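Exercise 4. Each item below gives a protein and its sequence. For each, produce the structure-token representation.

Item: Multidrug resistance protein MdtA-like beta-barrel domain-containing protein (Rotaria magnacalcarata).
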Amino acid sequence: IRIIAYDADLGTSGTVDYYIGTLNVPYFTINQTTGAIIYRAGVTFSNLNTTLFPVQFTVFAQDRGIPPRISPVNATITLYL
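Answer:
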């Protein structure tokens, strides 16, 4: 899963970074540069607590402008085993 945001500014101001807004998102983290949502280290299908699904959280995309601009998007991950 990947979040993609675009910024029309040139140079560093147009670079977009990604953050998960919820402090405790079980099992997942986000790559700040690529927006890829990935499993946390050590997570396997055998140690997943399926009662925690679906997992809902907010992802923020923020440019590096001055002042920075930020946009939220809600994400839901549902796991079917």
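Check: The two ends are 17 Å apart (CA to CA).
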